[in-house]
Structures are given as structure tokens and as C-alpha cells.
Amino acid sequence: MLTANQLNNALTLFFSLMVEAIPFLLLGVLFSSALLLFVDERKLVAAVPRHPLLAALAGSLIGCLFPVCECGNVPVARRLIVQGAPSSMAIGFLLAAPTVNPIVFWATWTAFRDQPEVVFLRVGFTLLIASIVGWVFSTQADLRPLLQPTVTRAMPSQSTQARSSSTRSHGNGATTDSDLALLQSGTFLLGTGTQPQRLDDPAMLSTNLALSRPWTDRLPLMLDNVVQELRELGGVLILGAAIASIIQIAAPREVILGLGQNTITSILAMMLLACVVSICSTVDSFFALSFASTFTTGSLLAFLVFGPMIDLKNIALLWSVFRARAIIYLFVLAAQLTFLLSLLVNLYI
Amino acid sequence: MTVKPSKSKLTISQRRRARKANAKKRNLAWLQPLIDILAIAAWGVLLLRYWLTDKINILLHPDYVWLAYSAGFFLLGLAALKSVQWLRQKKQGQSSTTPPHFSLFPPGWSSTLLFAVALFGFYFTPQPFASDVALNRGVTESLTMTRSQPQAFRSATAPEERSLVEWIRTLNVYPEPDAYTGQRANVEGFVIHSNEIPDNYLVIARFVITCCAADVYPVGLPVKLPAGDRSAHPPDQWLRVEGQMITETLKNKRQLVIDATSLTEIPEPDTPYDY
């Protein structure tokens, strides 16, 4: 049990994490909403190379367009998935975007300008890991079984996808669009004709309804979307921040730090710390800097590469998109690759 | 794909009214926009309140404060816009025309949680961290733990003008304690009682913040008291310590110690963390 003082500290930490994360969450939600209503992701998705590895690399590099940390990239990734992006691209984006963007590069450079190898290895390792994990996920061409049912429902139906993509030809033809429409509840547009229109209708998604409407109509839609995503992701952020604060206060950090000198345990300790601290990728390099004198370079890199991909706060956000099974795959793959690459740095650099 | 109207004889507005009535019966969905607006506005006000009452200094590094209050203003603007939209839709009898969405919680839960936590934020006053956190985070284990490369290292600074954090940075660049023996020290910080050093020593410490309270880390130096034991200076008391630097062996380690000549109690600073 926490003492009153510890509870006080945990609450201060909690509000600190929230106050720090909310601006970035807002930025992410704004970018995500703009992407929905002003950018045709279909073109973005269509421009992605067919080869799964190249698609994963392209997805990873798209992060440069969205300078947001991991609290912000989950809604964007979710949007890409709903718009039918190949799994390798979506996963590549999800893992790489928090790190591979100009703001994080600049922050890391500011912190580690005397150790430029840390800056470049951070970006390089992230691209490599995100591409490999994206590639692995491409064997599951249809992400649906790994997604939350709510996300699956909003995706274009299997048959529509099969028609629009020659790479995915194993669609389940038994389920028709009309079957889905009868079974689903959904959001309807009123006053646009003689009948209400389903907004999550696959046919409407394929023509991107919002883009066909005048600007004066798009802005209220964007406002609605911003509020919705803010509400949903804000709720999850509260859970993640609460868990992170309690663990940070209740777990004696000396235990984690005590592991820090060894080639192997230092990497494991920093990966564990990255998971526990759940700090935003835009600022985590400053945090890592405070361990620069006591921890190996490889372990600092492990912190900087692994933290933005998977941490407690972000697991809660990921859970709004993926089922537990997919999160475990992501976690295990990213953790193994990060560990191996960091170990190479500790041994040979 | 559109849904076929089940009762084709009904006009659009009749169907709309019927659906609205059903929705009201089934749940309290009409409350949703109101709770959304309240939750967004409450977080906006909370962020601005932290900023205006300077409590933000306990939560964030000064470099990030502008982000917090900008977000506060933005959230208030968002709440105002949403209110206007909601009132207009209510007047015209329209429901919200939102794109497809998905959620972990039922929608009402999320907004209620956000609103409730924001309300709790008004009640709860953040407290700067103190010696218990410092001990937990290992100040006694790593007294010289700090940035590997000082960002603003000024070697010309006279020893008596160095802050505690500047001392730690100096030590970090050149860690031989004997190099500093005899130099005058004049530092401020809070008291930590460490069980690992004798009773006639205390640790004078500061927290360094790099981003937010989640990453504050303590740095400190042992202080040899001129007389008696440390019980006269309870943990967390803020002190100005004057004295000169000596080298002693504590915990089987040669290290720099402040041999105090005077200890003055000072009020806790407005910005408790150093940078």
C-alpha cells in the first residue's frame, strides 16, 4: 500500500505526465483529424510500394510528416489502418513515427550532440526495427483478427478491400456488404438526401465523403472528430499515466539502477525503465541523458529506441486499436530486436 | 450503401424524431456532448490554473510551460466552439454528424473519467518532491550522476558562486575531489538524512528537472556539520550551506564534502527544481 506521502508524489507525477502529454495528444489528434478530412489517405496508401519490406520502410518514413510523439501517432496509425493501409505500412508507421521525425531528431541532437552516434543510431535502429516488424506483420495481410472489433467494423469490408487491392485476394466472399450493414450499428449522416447515409459505409469510405464536401462542412466534421478522439485517447491516457505513476513511486528505482553497469543487464534495465517511465519521445532523450554517466551507450540506445515503441502509457493507447495478442507480438518482436542491436553496440562500438 | 427506410410512408423529419425519441429512451446519449464540453473546458481551465498559480513549475521544465498554457487556451477555444455547435444543432434538431469512431470505453465513460480527473485536479495541489523521493531515486548511490556533457559549463565561475548543480557538473567533468580542496562553497538545497553516512553528516540536495516531474533526479553533496548531529536539521528543510571543500572517505569512497561553517535556514524557492 502507498503511504499518504507516496500517494501525494504519485498524484503529482500523474498530473505532471498529463500536463506534459496533453499538448502532444492535442497535436496528434489535430493531425489525425486533418488527415481524415483534408488529406486523401487513399492516395498515400496507394503510393506505398507493393513489396512488404518497402511498404514497411515507407510507413516508417511517413513519420517525418507527422512530428508527434507516441501519444499522437496511435490515432494516425488507427486512421491509416481504417483506410486500408497494408499491415506492413501501418505497423512500420506505428513503431517508427514517434522517433523518426524532425522534432525528436532535434531534441536528441540537443541532448547528445557530443555523442552524435547516439542520435544517428537511434534513428537508424528505429527504422530497421520498424521495417522488420512491419515485414513480419505483412504475413498477416488482413489485420482484422488482431484488431479491436470497433476498429474492424470501421474498416472497409473484406470484399471491398479485395476488389481494391490485387495483393489481398483471399477475402471472405461469404460476407456481403449488405449483411454487414444489417448487422451493424453506426454513425449516419442526415439531411444529405432522401435517406440517411452510413458514414462508415465502405462505399462512402472509398470515395472519401469528407473530401467531396465544401470546406464549410468539413470544419464542423473535423471539430467533431477532434472532440471524439480527444475523449477516447484522453481516457486511455489517464489510465496509462496512473499506472506509470504508481509503479514509478512504488518500485524502488535503486533496484533498476543497480543492474545498470553490466553489458546485458544495463540494456534490460533501461528497456524496463523505458517501459515504466512512459515518457514522450520528444523529450525522452533529456531523460536518458541523466543516465549517460552511469549506463552503457547500448542501454541508452535501447531506452531511446524501445521506449517510444512500447511503454505502459502507449500499451493502453495501443489497446484502443489492437487486441492483446497483437500487442504481445509487437512487444516481443520490438524488444528482441532492440536488445540484439543494443548488445551489438555494447560489444563492438 | 444506404440503409433502406423501414417505414417509407414516414417523412424524413418524422423518422428523425422517432429515432431521437428511441435514443433518449435507450440511454442518456444526449448528455454526451455536454460532458465532452465540460471535460474539455475543465482541462483547459486546469492547465491555465497551473500556469497562473505557478504550480506548473512543480510539474514541468520551464521550456515546456508554453506548450501547457497554449494547450489550455486551445482546449477552452475547442470547448467554446463545440458549445456553439451543440446549441446550433439542438436548435435545428440535428444530431451530430461525426465520422466513424471507435473506443475502448463506452463514450460516456471516457468523458466522465476525464471530467472527474480534471475536477480532482482542482482539489489536489501538486507538491514538489522531497527527500523520500530522492532516497528512493538513489541520490546516495550516485551523488555525481548528472548530464554527461554539461550544456552550460563555465569554468571561470568563482567557486563560491557555483550552485549545487554547477558543483556537480564541475565534479562530473573532473571528478578528482582533491582538486577542489580548500575552495569556498556557498550552495542552497534541501536536507536529506542518509543512513549510509554518519550522524554528523547530512546531504544537501537539489532535484534537476529535464522535462517533467516524471524525470526529476536528485543530485547532492555530503555536508560535514560543524557541531552535533543532524537532528537539528530535519529532512526536507531548505538550507544555505557555507563552508569549504574537503576530501573525506565516506562509504569506502573518497569524495568531495562540504565542511560547513554556517547553515542558514531559507524558505523553499518558488521553483524548487534546478535545470
Short description:
Chain A: Belongs to the UPF0718 family. By secondary structure, chain A is an all-alpha fold. Chain A has 18 helices and two strands.
Describe the structure.
Chain A: Residues 157-169 have a biased composition (Low complexity). Chain A: It holds the Pfam family ArsP_1. The complex is a heterodimer of chains A (349) and B (275). Chain A contains 18 helices and two strands. The longest helix of chain A is centred in the middle third of the chain and has 36 residues, at 215-250. In chain A, helix 1 packs parallel to helix 4 and helix 16 packs antiparallel against helix 18. Chain A is globular. Chain A is an all-alpha fold and 349 residues long. In chain A, a hairpin with a 7-residue loop joins strand 1 and strand 2 (197-198). In chain A, strands 1-2 form a two-stranded antiparallel sheet. Chain A has one domain (4-348). Chain B has 275 residues and is of the alpha/beta class. Chain B has two domains: 7-97 and 104-123, no CATH class; 131-274, Nucleic acid-binding proteins (OB fold (Dihydrolipoamide Acetyltransferase, E2P), Beta Barrel), CATH 2.40.50.140. In chain B, 37% of the residues lie in helices and 19% in strands. A five-stranded mixed beta barrel of chain B has the order 1-2-3-5-4. In chain B, helix 2 (32-52) packs antiparallel against helix 4 (65-92) and helix 2 (32-52) runs parallel beside helix 5. The model of chain B is unreliable at 1-8 and 140-151 (pLDDT under 50). Classes of the chains: A mainly alpha (349), B alpha/beta (275).
